[in-house]
Protein backbone atom coordinates (compact mmCIF):
# COMPACT_ATOMS: atom_id res chain seq x y z
CA UNK A 1 0.00 0.00 0.00
CA UNK A 2 1.24 3.58 -0.66
CA UNK A 3 2.42 5.71 2.24
CA UNK A 4 -0.18 8.19 3.58
CA UNK A 5 -0.15 11.44 1.61
CA UNK A 6 2.37 13.79 3.23
CA UNK A 7 1.59 17.36 4.09
CA UNK A 8 3.87 19.92 2.52
CA UNK A 9 6.38 20.19 5.37
CA UNK A 10 9.96 20.71 4.16
CA UNK A 11 13.19 19.60 5.87
CA UNK A 12 16.21 21.63 4.73
CA UNK A 13 18.88 19.80 6.74
CA UNK A 14 19.20 16.01 6.60
CA UNK A 15 21.95 13.46 6.01
CA UNK A 16 19.82 11.00 4.07
CA UNK A 17 22.30 10.11 1.31
CA UNK A 18 23.80 6.68 2.02
CA UNK A 19 27.48 5.98 2.61
CA UNK A 20 28.68 9.48 1.87
CA UNK A 21 29.40 11.08 5.25
CA UNK A 22 28.26 10.27 8.79
CA UNK A 23 24.65 9.92 7.70
CA UNK A 24 22.60 7.03 6.33
CA UNK A 25 24.53 3.77 6.37
CA UNK A 26 23.06 2.33 3.18
CA UNK A 27 20.10 2.64 0.83
CA UNK A 28 17.88 0.65 3.19
CA UNK A 29 18.63 3.19 5.92
CA UNK A 30 17.76 6.04 3.53
CA UNK A 31 14.47 4.33 2.71
CA UNK A 32 13.66 3.88 6.40
CA UNK A 33 14.41 7.56 7.00
CA UNK A 34 12.06 8.45 4.16
CA UNK A 35 9.29 6.38 5.72
CA UNK A 36 9.74 8.16 9.06
CA UNK A 37 9.64 11.53 7.29
CA UNK A 38 6.44 10.64 5.42
CA UNK A 39 4.83 9.63 8.69
CA UNK A 40 5.71 13.03 10.14
CA UNK A 41 4.12 14.95 7.25
CA UNK A 42 7.42 15.84 5.56
CA UNK A 43 7.14 16.00 1.79
CA UNK A 44 10.52 17.33 0.65
CA UNK A 45 13.98 16.81 2.12
CA UNK A 46 17.18 18.60 1.16
CA UNK A 47 20.04 16.11 1.32
CA UNK A 48 22.83 18.04 3.04
CA UNK A 49 26.02 15.95 3.31
CA UNK A 50 28.92 17.57 5.12
CA UNK A 51 31.05 19.73 2.84
CA UNK A 52 34.13 19.99 5.01
CA UNK A 53 37.66 18.68 5.28
CA UNK A 54 36.96 15.54 7.31
CA UNK A 55 34.49 14.06 4.80
CA UNK A 56 35.34 13.02 1.25
CA UNK A 57 32.10 14.19 -0.34
CA UNK A 58 32.46 14.49 -4.11
CA UNK A 59 30.21 17.32 -5.18
CA UNK A 60 29.86 16.27 -8.86
CA UNK A 61 28.35 12.95 -7.69
CA UNK A 62 25.62 14.46 -5.51
CA UNK A 63 22.90 14.79 -8.16
CA UNK A 64 23.29 11.12 -9.12
CA UNK A 65 23.21 10.02 -5.48
CA UNK A 66 20.04 12.04 -4.86
CA UNK A 67 18.45 10.44 -7.93
CA UNK A 68 19.31 6.98 -6.58
CA UNK A 69 17.54 7.67 -3.27
CA UNK A 70 14.52 9.16 -5.04
CA UNK A 71 14.29 6.08 -7.25
CA UNK A 72 14.26 3.82 -4.19
CA UNK A 73 11.63 5.95 -2.44
CA UNK A 74 9.45 5.95 -5.56
CA UNK A 75 9.86 2.19 -6.07
CA UNK A 76 8.62 1.65 -2.52
CA UNK A 77 5.79 4.19 -2.86
CA UNK A 78 7.16 6.52 -0.19
CA UNK A 79 5.83 9.95 -1.09
CA UNK A 80 8.88 11.97 -0.18
CA UNK A 81 11.18 13.78 -2.61
CA UNK A 82 14.87 14.33 -1.88
CA UNK A 83 16.56 17.46 -3.24
CA UNK A 84 20.20 18.39 -3.67
CA UNK A 85 22.09 20.46 -1.12
CA UNK A 86 24.97 20.39 1.30
CA UNK A 87 25.97 21.47 4.79
CA UNK A 88 28.91 23.72 4.04
CA UNK A 89 31.41 24.31 6.83
CA UNK A 90 32.48 27.91 7.31
CA UNK A 91 36.06 26.62 7.32
CA UNK A 92 35.61 25.05 3.86
CA UNK A 93 34.20 28.09 2.05
CA UNK A 94 37.49 29.42 0.72
CA UNK A 95 38.31 26.13 -0.98
CA UNK A 96 35.08 25.92 -2.99
CA UNK A 97 34.63 27.25 -6.48
CA UNK A 98 31.58 29.22 -7.55
CA UNK A 99 30.35 26.16 -9.45
CA UNK A 100 30.78 23.91 -6.42
CA UNK A 101 28.95 26.35 -4.17
CA UNK A 102 26.09 26.57 -6.64
CA UNK A 103 25.88 22.76 -6.77
CA UNK A 104 25.39 22.47 -3.01
CA UNK A 105 22.79 25.20 -2.60
CA UNK A 106 19.49 23.99 -1.17
CA UNK A 107 17.48 22.60 -4.05
CA UNK A 108 19.69 24.57 -6.43
CA UNK A 109 17.98 27.80 -5.38
CA UNK A 110 21.06 29.74 -4.32
CA UNK A 111 20.90 29.35 -0.53
CA UNK A 112 23.84 27.85 1.36
CA UNK A 113 23.27 25.89 4.58
CA UNK A 114 26.29 27.13 6.53
CA UNK A 115 27.86 25.35 9.51
CA UNK A 116 29.70 27.88 11.71
CA UNK A 117 33.22 27.11 12.83
CA UNK A 118 33.49 25.60 16.37
CA UNK A 119 33.32 27.90 19.38
CA UNK A 120 31.31 31.04 20.07
CA UNK A 121 29.88 32.82 17.05
CA UNK A 122 32.46 35.32 15.85
CA UNK A 123 33.10 38.07 13.34
CA UNK A 124 34.32 35.55 10.76
CA UNK A 125 30.80 34.15 10.39
CA UNK A 126 29.34 37.59 9.80
CA UNK A 127 32.06 38.20 7.20
CA UNK A 128 31.19 34.89 5.51
CA UNK A 129 27.49 35.80 5.33
CA UNK A 130 28.36 39.19 3.86
CA UNK A 131 30.73 37.66 1.31
CA UNK A 132 28.18 35.06 0.22
CA UNK A 133 25.52 37.75 -0.14
CA UNK A 134 27.80 39.84 -2.32
CA UNK A 135 28.40 36.77 -4.50
CA UNK A 136 24.67 36.22 -4.91
CA UNK A 137 24.10 33.48 -2.32
CA UNK A 138 21.70 33.46 0.60
CA UNK A 139 22.84 31.96 3.92
CA UNK A 140 20.86 29.71 6.23
CA UNK A 141 22.79 29.30 9.49
CA UNK A 142 22.77 25.80 10.97
CA UNK A 143 23.43 24.58 14.52
CA UNK A 144 22.81 27.62 16.73
CA UNK A 145 22.54 25.11 19.61
CA UNK A 146 26.31 24.58 19.43
CA UNK A 147 27.04 28.24 20.08
CA UNK A 148 25.04 29.18 23.16
CA UNK A 149 26.87 32.04 24.88
CA UNK A 150 26.22 35.30 26.67
CA UNK A 151 26.25 37.26 23.40
CA UNK A 152 24.58 34.64 21.17
CA UNK A 153 21.36 36.60 20.65
CA UNK A 154 23.28 39.75 19.80
CA UNK A 155 25.45 37.84 17.32
CA UNK A 156 22.45 36.22 15.66
CA UNK A 157 20.62 39.54 15.38
CA UNK A 158 23.67 40.87 13.50
CA UNK A 159 23.67 37.87 11.17
CA UNK A 160 19.98 38.37 10.39
CA UNK A 161 20.57 42.09 9.78
CA UNK A 162 23.24 41.03 7.25
CA UNK A 163 20.68 38.91 5.40
CA UNK A 164 21.05 35.46 6.97
CA UNK A 165 18.24 33.26 8.24
CA UNK A 166 18.49 30.83 11.16
CA UNK A 167 17.71 27.10 11.08
CA UNK A 168 17.03 25.38 14.39
CA UNK A 169 17.26 21.61 14.86
CA UNK A 170 13.79 20.46 15.93
CA UNK A 171 15.01 17.93 18.51
CA UNK A 172 16.83 20.60 20.51
CA UNK A 173 13.59 22.46 21.14
CA UNK A 174 12.19 19.34 22.75
CA UNK A 175 14.99 18.18 25.06
CA UNK A 176 18.69 18.29 25.81
CA UNK A 177 21.06 20.88 27.27
CA UNK A 178 20.63 23.41 24.39
CA UNK A 179 16.85 23.58 24.84
CA UNK A 180 16.88 26.67 27.07
CA UNK A 181 19.02 28.59 24.60
CA UNK A 182 16.86 27.56 21.65
CA UNK A 183 13.70 28.64 23.45
CA UNK A 184 15.36 32.01 24.07
CA UNK A 185 16.00 32.29 20.32
CA UNK A 186 12.38 31.42 19.60
CA UNK A 187 11.03 33.97 22.08
CA UNK A 188 13.20 36.64 20.46
CA UNK A 189 11.98 35.82 16.93
CA UNK A 190 15.41 34.52 15.90
CA UNK A 191 14.32 31.16 14.44
CA UNK A 192 13.07 30.98 10.86
CA UNK A 193 13.25 27.33 9.80
CA UNK A 194 13.09 24.00 11.63
CA UNK A 195 14.91 20.93 10.32
CA UNK A 196 15.64 17.42 11.52
CA UNK A 197 19.41 17.17 10.97
CA UNK A 198 18.71 13.44 11.04
CA UNK A 199 21.57 11.08 10.23
CA UNK A 200 20.05 7.59 10.40
CA UNK A 201 16.94 5.56 11.14
CA UNK A 202 18.99 3.46 13.56
CA UNK A 203 19.44 6.13 16.23
CA UNK A 204 20.20 9.75 16.97
CA UNK A 205 17.86 12.54 15.91
CA UNK A 206 14.77 11.17 14.14
CA UNK A 207 13.65 12.53 10.79
CA UNK A 208 10.85 14.45 12.45
CA UNK A 209 9.95 18.12 12.70
CA UNK A 210 6.47 17.99 14.23
CA UNK A 211 7.64 17.72 17.85
CA UNK A 212 9.72 20.86 17.52
CA UNK A 213 6.84 22.67 15.82
CA UNK A 214 4.61 21.75 18.74
CA UNK A 215 7.08 23.44 21.09
CA UNK A 216 7.16 26.56 18.90
CA UNK A 217 3.39 26.55 19.09
CA UNK A 218 3.78 27.38 22.78
CA UNK A 219 5.84 30.50 21.97
CA UNK A 220 3.43 33.44 21.76
CA UNK A 221 5.40 35.31 19.08
CA UNK A 222 5.67 32.30 16.75
CA UNK A 223 2.41 30.45 17.39
CA UNK A 224 0.49 32.21 14.55
CA UNK A 225 3.32 31.52 12.08
CA UNK A 226 4.03 27.78 12.29
CA UNK A 227 2.95 27.23 8.69
CA UNK A 228 5.40 29.89 7.54
CA UNK A 229 8.23 28.19 9.47
CA UNK A 230 7.41 24.66 8.35
CA UNK A 231 6.37 25.28 4.75
CA UNK A 232 6.39 28.81 3.36
CA UNK A 233 9.90 29.90 4.36
CA UNK A 234 11.68 26.68 3.29
CA UNK A 235 9.70 26.59 0.03
CA UNK A 236 10.81 30.14 -0.74
CA UNK A 237 14.42 29.22 0.02
CA UNK A 238 14.21 26.30 -2.42
CA UNK A 239 12.87 28.71 -5.06
CA UNK A 240 15.83 31.02 -4.49
CA UNK A 241 13.75 33.73 -2.85
CA UNK A 242 14.32 35.47 0.47
CA UNK A 243 11.29 34.86 2.69
CA UNK A 244 10.39 37.84 4.83
CA UNK A 245 9.56 36.77 8.39
CA UNK A 246 5.99 37.70 9.39
CA UNK A 247 7.22 38.39 12.95
CA UNK A 248 9.74 40.90 14.26
CA UNK A 249 13.05 40.35 15.99
CA UNK A 250 12.55 41.21 19.65
Describe the structure in your own words.
- This protein has 250 residues and is α/β, with parallel strands linked by helices.
- The chain has helices spanning 27-39, 62-75, 98-103, 123-134, 152-161, 171-174, 179-187, 210-216, 226-239, and strands spanning 9-14, 42-47, 50-51, 81-83, 87-89, 111-115, 138-141, 165-169, 193-195.
- The longest helix is centred in the N-terminal third of the chain and has 14 residues, at 62-75.
Brief descriptors of the model:
9 strands; about 250 residues; alpha/beta; about 15% strand; TIM Barrel; three-stranded parallel β-sheet; six-stranded parallel β-sheet; 9 helices; single chain
**Termini separation (Å)?**
47 Å
The neighbouring-strand order within the major sheet is 3-5-6-7-8-9
The CATH architecture designation is Alpha-Beta Barrel
Instruction: Output the helix-strand order.
Output: EHEEHEEHEHEHEHHEHH
Q: What's the domain count? A: 1
Q: Tell me, what's the shape?
A: globular
What structural class do helix, strand and pairing data support? alpha/beta
The third-level CATH topology is TIM Barrel
Give the total of beta strands: 9
Give the CATH class. Answer: Alpha Beta
Quickly describe the structure.
The protein contains 9 helices and 9 strands.
Strand and helix layout:
Blueprint lengths: L8 E6 L12 H13 L2 E6 L2 E2 L10 H14 L5 E3 L3 E3 L8 H6 L7 E5 L7 H12 L3 E4 L10 H10 L3 E5 L1 H4 L4 H9 L5 E3 L14 H7 L9 H14 L11
Parallel strand pairs: 1-2, 2-4, 3-5, 5-6, 6-7, 7-8, 8-9
